[in-house]
Amino acid sequence: MTGSAREVLGGPCSSLRHxxxxxxxxxxxxxxxxxxxxxxxxxPCLEREGERDIALDAKALKRTALKRIAELERSLSAPxxxxxxxxxx
Length: 89
Known about the structure:
Elements: H1 3-8, H2 15-41, H3 51-77
């Protein structure tokens, strides 16, 4: 089997796997940004019972989502280590 065929069929250092993971991470970043936009659109009605707690939870969720986006973007911009030119049997 040639090296390129091994990569396409899912060898351990497959560039296809790396591409799929990057795409999954990009999708997750997109979804997290949509979540943040939805949280930002929500207007709390503080006169309703429990609304203050919901607003605080939304703020914490947004902070966590922003932190995760930053982590994912760092991993997407980092070069893949050990995937170029390696073949395994």
